[in-house]
Amino acid sequence: MNYLLTVSYIGTNYCGWQYQPNARSVQECFQNAVEDLFGKRFPVTGCSRTDSGVHAKGFLCTVKTDGTESPIDSDKLPMALNVRLPQDISVREAEAVPDAFHPRYNTYGKEYRYIFYDGKCRNPFLQNRAWQICHRLDESKMNSAARLFCGEHDFSSFCSVGTSDDNHVRTVFESNVAREGETVVFRVTGNGFLYNMVRIMAGTLYDVSRGKINESDISRALKCGNRASVGMTAPPYGLYLERVLRKPFGE
Amino acid sequence: MNYLLTVSYIGTNYCGWQYQPNARSVQECFQNAVEDLFGKRFPVTGCSRTDSGVHAKGFLCTVKTDGTESPIDSDKLPMALNVRLPQDISVREAEAVPDAFHPRYNTYGKEYRYIFYDGKCRNPFLQNRAWQICHRLDESKMNSAARLFCGEHDFSSFCSVGTSDDNHVRTVFESNVAREGETVVFRVTGNGFLYNMVRIMAGTLYDVSRGKINESDISRALKCGNRASVGMTAPPYGLYLERVLRKPFGE
Asked: What is the pLDDT confidence band of residue A250, given thresholds at 50, 70 and 90?
């Protein structure tokens, strides 16, 4: 059986999704929960890595069993795994999918959200859950700049050294910034994201707000591919993987 | 100088506001931060106790100095205290008030919010921040019932043994329930609240949703004053002290 799980987690206490021998990963928590539930170790495959400290609301992963286990209904699976997972991780939904379904290759994009908090004083409820800037941001300037990311571009300026892919061309479907009370939210949807790409976009938008970078700098960066011409990498704790866009299976 | 502070805190790690010799209280954190800042211990007075695990967004307290300290502008005070307070406590605002101002006696009421989460599976982002029911609530029935609390009533049915006050008559100004996505929010504003009163109201509304209590039970409870006729005390982690209603000084 191949189960597709929709997963939420608070990234604060993890090195990210991906298993690492000397750090606590979300994947390892799943491997252990699955082994405890089925009495056997089965592969758990994620839709992507996430950075240490980054959160997820709609991460996708599959659990592929070999048919030797006692079967479990997919609607019972979230509860059965949740009692075996730490409180900061939760399976939100589970469904049976064809064996060939892969959470990376049968999806066509992702939606991220980056949350800035710009109230005067720090907000304890957003500790580790937003980048707390604590001086007023200009969401209108940030929104104009964010729209420049839309479309197909070479995003070499917007990735960190160590990106695994040689091809830096990606398509951004939607990109905008809006105020929600004392937070400013950057939403971006695209067919793929390079290493640290959303966090560098967020850092660049912050620099746009404080006048260190302007729109023509961004347009130039999207052409010249020079990392030094854009903003800093924003901290991980403001970033949320909102959802993964699934292809209808078979496409 | 008498400084009035507006304070937010996550109640999870505290026994409540009030100092207790063998537990960690928010008040003690303030006493220590104030002593560290001014080099001298000054009285810190809160607008109320809060229960262990209960959160606050707009708690009020005063810090009364004796004039021997180096003066500090009230607009600098939030930052100066925040660097000396734990991350789950924050001073949001500070202002100088007349010496006679008392955060309990110069206020005329409070607004509380109680958050129920009724998504299918647990939500890690609301861990310790909502009562996670995990089956669908009937917010419309809860809202009708919540409206019965409005007005002046003897709330003896809605307080726990150990309430300090002999007079159980309180006036509720507003009381309603509304859905916000996968949360259901009970808001109540009144001139005063007995020990555990909001949590018992919330537990009663939960019982209304699941059909264990109906509206006439509540009307009767508001007359007969019998604790056993209403619902359980809802857990503390869903409760937020939203704001304290201040009298114009001098009234």
From this structure: low
Reply yes or no on whether A75 is catalytic.
Answer: no
Prediction pTM value: 0.93
Contact A240, A130 (CB under 8 A): no
Beta carbons of A122 and B9 less than 8 Å apart = no
Q: Percentage helix, strand, coil, to 5, in chain A?
A: 25, 30, 45
CA distance to partner chain B, nearest, from residue A10 (Å): 7
* Residue burial A11-48, b: 16+ Cβ < 10 Å; e: rest: beebbbbbbeeeeebbbbbbbebbeebbeeebebbbbb
Taking an 8 Å Cβ-Cβ cutoff, which residues of chain A contact chain B? 8-10, 55, 57, 78-79, 82, 87-93, 119-125, 127, 129
Distance CA A227, CA A34 (A): 41
Give A90's contacts in chain B (Cβ within 8 Å): 121-124
B147 phi/psi in degrees, rounded to 5: -65, -20
Residues present in chain A in total:
251
* A57, A8 Cβ separation under 8 angstroms: yes
Can you tell me the ipTM of this complex?
0.91
Give kind and range of the element (H or E) at residue B57.
strand B55-64
Helix (H) or strand (E) holding B220: helix B215-224
